[in-house]
Amino acid sequence: MRRLTLASAGLLALLSGSAQAADVGADLPMTAPGFDWTGYYAGLQAGYGWGRADMGSSGGAPFSASPDLDGGFIGGQVAGLWQFDQAVLGAVADLNYSSVDGAADLGLGDSAGAELKWFGSVDAKAGYAMDRVLVYGIGGIAFAGIEASRNGVADTRTEVGWTLGAGVDYALTDKFVVGAQYRYFDFRSEHFDIPDDRDQDVKLHTLGVNLSYKF
User: Is the peptide bond before 29 cis (omega within 30 degrees of 0)?
Assistant: First the structure.
C-alpha cells in the first residue's frame, strides 16, 4: 500500500511538472512567420525599351525597312496575389506612357518612322517565394498605341499582341515592395492605310523597376 501511495504521488508530481512546462512554453514567443505575399497591390514603374519595327509598303513609293526603336517609359500597375506555401499565383494589369520610337532613312529626304505612344498588358503571374524575395514569370495579352509616320503624315492604331517576361520582387516592409522586371512584347503586324499603305510589325524588349504598395 505504501509503495502504491508513493507511486501515485510521483505520477501526480510528474503530471504537474509537465503541465507547468507546457504553460511556460505557451508564454514563449513563437518564431516570426515569413512575409505573406497574399494581397492587393498598386504602384508605379519606369524603364527603358528597345526593339524593331519591320515595315514595308507597296503603295505610292514602295519601300522596305526595319528601323531600330528605343526610348523610355513610365506608368502604373495593379495586382492581386495569393500565396500557397511557397508558390505565389496572381494577376497583374499595367499601362505605360512611352517615348519609344525610331525611323528609317529612305533617301532623298524621305523617311519612315514608328513610335509607341503607350503600351500595357493584362497578365498572369506565377512565382516562388523565399520569405521577402519573390522570383516569378509573367505573361499575357499586350496592347499598344503605335504610330506609323512618313514625312510628317502619321496614323496611330491600337494593336494587340502578347508578352512574356520574368522578374524579382523584394518586400522592403510589410507594405512596400520594390522590383525589377524584363519583358518581351510582340505586337504582330498591322496595316496602315495612311501614310503609305504600310504593313508594320513591332517587337519590343523592356527593362524596368517598380515600387508597389500592398493593401
Answer: no
pLDDT in the model for residue 60:
67
Angstrom distance (rounded) from CA 120 to CA 118: 7
Query: 34-46 pLDDT, tens per residue?
Result: 899 999 999 999 9
Distance from chain centroid for Cα 10: 64
Cell triple for residue 172? 522592403
The total of other beta-carbon atoms located within 10 Å of residue 81's CB is 24
pLDDT band at 57 (very low <50, low <70, confident <90, very high): confident
